[in-house]
Amino acid sequence: MPRLSISVRLTLWYAAFLTASLALFGGLLWFSLRSRLVSGIDQDLADRATRFENYFRAESIVKDVQLRDELEEFCQALPAASYLDLRGAHGFEFRYSSGAALPAGAMRTYRRQFRFREESFELETGKPLGDAERTLELLRRLLASWIPVVIAVACLGGAWLSRRALKPVREATAAALTIGIENLSQRLPVAATGDEIAHLAEGWNSMLERLEKAVRTLSQFTADASHELRTPLAVVRTTAELALQRARTADSYRESLAEIVAETARMTQLVEDLLFLARTDTARAEMPLEPIDLRDVLTGVCAEIRGLAEMRQVGVASRLGDEAAIVSGNPAALHRLFLVLLDNALKYSRRGGTVTVTLERAGHGVSIVVEDSGAGIGPADLPHIFERFYRAEGSRGDGGHGLGLSLAQSIAKAHGTAIEAASRPGAGSKFQVTFELRAAPRRRPEREIFPAR
């Protein structure tokens, strides 16, 4: 069975709701009018009985025959199709009905008892419900004939309104079907209504903008990666071809092979960095988190980089406090993040300077701050240092690929945080990453220093 469109379903639901509402309204109107008519008849009968009782009391001083004539004269003024019956405890009886026979059908009666001159009387008067029933029947026919007409007209109007209201959705759907990878810059039309459909179109356009940016970044990333791989591959090929052109000494071959090994190692590191970035971009599941002490990670990183620091004659000072800092993290990934930050700090520090690693606590968070004493980063370069393959001016000959800080930032984002950088030219740089504490700390040594050599 084919599915119904939203327009048809809205019309059907509207018709069902309107039918139920009008049926309820008609029923309430009919019962309300019936109650009002019956209440009016009851009040009229009660007034009639009161007037007759007062008249009977006033005329009862006359003889019985004259009394009946007087009561008969009083009843002549009653509406047609009425009756009245009075019975006394000592045998007095008076009954009146209109000249015409009482109509068949429902009658509304009213009874009252009263005492007069030590005698108990029972008075009953009645009136047929014919007029009320005819009025109610007329109302019922009007409702039965007009409600379907109102529902039909309302359904036609509802179908037209629903189609008109959903027209922007159809237009947006048609536009979305034309958008592909080759024209991601195209956007869906947004109606100037400010309603939910306009917000939906704006949301889709925002998603398309992010998708276009991601595709553009991916294309640029692929181009940059190809460019970075082209240079070492060209070096390897040129070196091998030169070595094969003519006979060489063993030392010459050894130099050629050493150059090939160096370029191969450079390509291997680049490929590993690219694969790591791809994994962090694709799925966080490949980076399972567990409770770890940031102090243990930082202590291991400082110990690992100590040799490089000594070679560059730069000191490394770690101020980790005396309490553990337990967070949810991936040990290997966080080790690499801090290793990138420390290696970057060492790379741009002056000889004899110091790189400081500080663990700071604030409320329920803990921040790791890495500061160096280098030349700093220029204002034009600072906003771009976390972009892939970006290298600031003056860093082109450092042998890097411009992926280190991008890797570190990807790891930080996988842990639900981000690296913040601050720098002034000539005053060094500071990188800070903040994590949420997970468990109570434990005591540890406060300070470890690797002095400059």
Descriptive report:
With 453 residues, the protein is an alpha+beta fold. The chain has three domains: 155 residues, no CATH class; 87 residues, Helix Hairpins (Orthogonal Bundle), CATH 1.10.287.130; 165 residues, Heat Shock Protein 90, CATH 3.30.565.10. A six-stranded mixed sheet has the order 10-11-9-8-6-12. Helix 1 packs antiparallel against helix 2, helix 1 packs antiparallel against helix 3 and helix 7 runs parallel beside helix 8. The longest helix is centred in the N-terminal third of the chain and has 54 residues. The protein is elongated. The two termini are 82 Å apart.
Counting helices, strands and paired strands, the structural category is alpha+beta
Average pLDDT over all residues = 81
Radius of gyration: 49 Å
Binned, the helix content reads 40-55%
Largest sheet: 6 strands, mixed
Low-confidence stretches: 441-453
CATH architectural group of the largest domain = 2-Layer Sandwich
Order of helices and strands: HHEEEEHHHHEHEEHEEHEEE
- How many distinct domains? 3
Amount of beta strand: 15-25%
**Structural shape:** elongated
- How is the CATH topology of the largest domain named? Heat Shock Protein 90
The strand line-up of the biggest sheet is: 10-11-9-8-6-12
Summed up, the helix count is 9
